[in-house]
Amino acid sequence: MKAFVVDKYKKKGALRLADVPEPELRDDDVLVRVHATAVNLLDSKVRDGEFKLILPYRPPFILGHDVAGMVVRVGPKVRRFKAGDEVYARPRDHRIGTFAEFIAMNETDVALKPKNISMEEAAAIPLVGLTAWQALVEVGKLKPGQKVFIQAGSGGVGTFAIQLAKHLGATVATTTSTKNVELVKSLGADVVIDYKTQDFEKALTGYDLVLHSQDTRTLEKSLRVLRPGGLLISISGPPDPAFANELKLNLFLKLVMRVLSHGARKKAKSLGVRFLFLFMRAHGQQLSEIASLIESGLIRPVVDKSYPFEKTADALAYVETGRAKGKVVIRVEE
């Protein structure tokens, strides 16, 4: 099969289109013909080697974290899927590789694709949908009437998280650039901060939850918009000791993460608020619940651009500019 591979960890390194063997099918795997995939900043960070201490992949490896496609074969222990099923997924860490014609995934990572959207739209959902779900529902336990600040509202996670937060009954504030103000309002944002002309720290106060996806300076400002006892969930770092324990990392890496997150945790404590780092994980059941929301018309995917498979490197370069509105998808099976 054809796939885009990373030959070595390198910042802005090139992806190579290669002929590679079809993935082996384990007993509890489904083999999926990839119809569409999507690009995430996580892909460039993995390629650059930013996560190789905690997520080591041995080059050459296939990149890609989102998939929508059709099941072509199932392992002998698979009970939830059959050949011909249209599915979508974010494969688990250490088994990524959606920039390819086929991928094998554990059935628990997979869900039936929402019936009312295309393969390309479905491919735009898994990673950002699971990130938003795990932040707002699972960890943040967002309740009706609460106030949530979602940074970068026009980005991949932001466009999904705004809609999910509104469905949960929250008041939603977000930041975006001038040209995307109407987009985030159309998704349900109640308070829109144009970061080019406004300072969100001066405009927001008493928030229950912050979904943080920006840099360290923005993190410190964000902690100050929380009410006492409020929670900031960061998806952009720094990783904290709880995350190190969850991954069962060695003592050295646990120490590194304790040091990296010390400033954020100390600042949060001094303000009487909480800081948590979230690195989303594969979860087929949560994707099934997300599919129900999409089929009910409560959430819609936001797709900026669609590229043919051979232009995968161009799609990745575009995402790295930080200008994408929603998601950038790749058509693998035309």
TrEMBL record:
One of its GO terms (molecular function) is oxidoreductase activity. CDD domains: MDR_like_2. Residues 13-330 form the Enoyl reductase (ER) domain. It holds the Pfam family ADH_zinc_N_2. SUPFAM superfamilies: GroES-like, NAD(P)-binding Rossmann-fold domains. This is NADPH:quinone oxidoreductase. It comes from Bradyrhizobium valentinum. The lineage of its organism: Bacteria, Pseudomonadati, Pseudomonadota, Alphaproteobacteria, Hyphomicrobiales.
